[in-house]
Write a structure and sequence with these properties.
- The protein is an alpha/beta fold.
- It folds into two domains: 195 residues, Rossmann fold; 173 residues, Nucleotidyltransferase, domain 5 (2-Layer Sandwich), CATH 3.30.420.240.
- The protein contains 17 helices and 15 strands.
- Helix 8 links the parallel strand 6 and strand 7.
- Helix 13 packs across helix 14 and helix 15 crosses helix 17.
- The longest helix is centred in the C-terminal third of the chain and has 15 residues.
- It is elongated.
- The two termini are 41 Å apart.
- 37% of the residues are buried.
């Protein structure tokens, strides 16, 4: 097999090895380590600062014998730098490398041009050049790399490689097909290898991958890379998502398969059950998810009463009543909503108007022209609207004043796949809690992709 020589020797090649470096890094302060390495490396600070073997963490190295190295990490944990540095070393062993991202734009922006991308790490004289028209990287020693998009699995049919780096696997459009074609192409050399760096999501493709033979798995947390992240970002993420299911996935890098995408579990409802006296509430809302049609076979009209106490991140919400009805005419479900408004001493009615538009307000005004009405319009999917509300439950900011079995059953289905009835109760609850606890807040939201 043809080898590709390094242009610049590694520090440990001359006078020490990786295990010694690891020991020094864990026992010396950065300043003392800098002075020591400076003296041992011929007073070459550039070589010291660019040497990944010195600075990488234990969760960013894997010296075992593997075919696939899967690095599961939180946002900002250093996954990209790990993958790029692995490729940088690999170009001295093999001549052809595949680089696969969710899209070609992602490959260019993250894997190449990003701060930790291949065009910005290592010694300048060893960095590759990029030809956009060919989607090709050329290293000075003759090694080449090609960019691929997971949106086009068939583009990986035919080419062959000795190594590959796959980024954000869980965000790929066609993960199974793309990974299959990529693995068939890893057939150059005696030991072709694949590195996969991704923030985990509970998708079937990841579950299948984790049972593959020859797999080594590493995990890295966002906090492990705190020295290179904004303190404000870390604080905001911990405040918003610390201790939540989404936080365990997006910040801790945990794989959470048990609910197959569901946003609520039964255990959540058991912990949020509130059987004491409801405190004095600052605001009470009756949320309405109106049906499209009327009659015995019509969708339900979701009617949820909820209230909130407090302001900002200390505010708490209480689900007070599920008054959902079915089979009623528009006038009758409007009367039911207004009856709940008066019975609970609510501040306003909150109605979704995607289907009925102004007609919903007109129907309510016909029954009571003086009723205060607020309207909301859905711009996101049901699951997309529900995710921030599910986080509020995990943070212990929502309580159920009693048992609401039908409502909780609908919530447990939110985010899962398969044919289901319209979750009208759950939709009304999401609107109510969004209005009470989320609208107007400035906390950052982690989006699932």
């Amino acid at each position: 097999m043809k080898t590709f020589p390094r242009l610049v020797p590694k520090i440990e090649d001359a006078s020490w090895n990786g295990s010694i470096i690891s020991s020094l890094r864990s026992n010396l302060s950065p300043t003392k380590l800098l002075l020591l390495v400076w003296s041992l490396s011929g007073n070459d600070p550039f070589q010291f600062f660019k040497n990944w073997e010195i600075w990488q963490r234990d969760d960013q190295r894997n010296d075992t014998d593997w075919l696939i190295w899967l690095l599961l990490g939180g946002r900002g944990c250093g996954k990209t730098r790990t993958g790029a540095e692995w490729v940088r070393r690999k170009v001295f062993e093999t001549g052809r490398i595949a680089l696969v991202a969710p899209t070609l734009a992602d490959a260019r922006e993250v894997m190449l041009d990003g701060e930790s991308g291949l065009l910005n790490i290592g010694y300048p004289m060893e960095r590759p050049s990029y030809s956009p028209s060919r989607r090709r990287l050329d290293w000075p020693n003759g090694a080449v790399g090609y960019l691929f998009s997971a949106e086009d699995p068939d583009s990986l049919r035919g080419p062959q490689f000795g190594a590959a780096w796959a980024d954000e696997f869980c965000a790929w459009s066609y993960p199974e097909d793309t990974l299959s074609n990529l693995r068939f192409g890893l057939r150059v050399g005696t030991h072709p290898q694949l590195v996969i760096t991704t923030t985990p999501k509970p998708i079937p493709a990841l579950k299948s991958l984790m049972s593959a033979s020859g797999l080594a798995v590493s995990r890295a947390k966002t906090g492990a890379n705190s020295a290179n992240l904004s303190p404000a970002f870390l604080s905001a993420m911990e405040d918003s998502y610390g201790g939540t299911r989404l936080g365990r996935q997006e910040l801790e890098g945990e794989v959470l398969f048990d609910r197959e995408g569901a946003l609520w579990s039964q255990g959540i409802f058991e912990t949020c059950r509130f059987n004491g006296a409801i405190p004095q509430l600052d605001k009470i809302i009756v949320a309405i998810d109106p049906p499209v049609t009327s009659g015995a076979r019509s969708d339900q009209c979701g009617l949820i009463v909820a209230g909130a106490q407090g302001e900002g991140s200390t505010a708490r919400a209480y689900v007070l009543h599920d008054g959902t009805v079915q089979g009623l005419s528009p006038t009758d479900w409007a009367k039911a909503a207004i009856s709940l408004y008066h019975g609970w001493g609510a501040d306003a009615l909150l109605a979704e108007v995607n289907q009925g538009g102004e007609m919903v307000k007109t129907i309510l005004r016909t029954v009571d022209p003086n009723i205060p009405i607020k309207t909301v319009f859905a711009h996101k999917s049901k699951a997309g609207r529900a995710e921030p509300v599910a986080l509020l439950y995990e943070q212990g900011r929502v309580f159920h004043a009693g048992r609401f079995d039908a409502l909780e059953a609908e919530l447990r289905q939110m985010g899962t796949k398969g044919r289901q009835k319209s979750p009208d109760r759950a939709d009304a609850l999401v609107w109510a809690l969004t209005h009470l606890l989320i609208d107007g807040r400035s906390d950052p939201i982690i989006r699932r992709t």
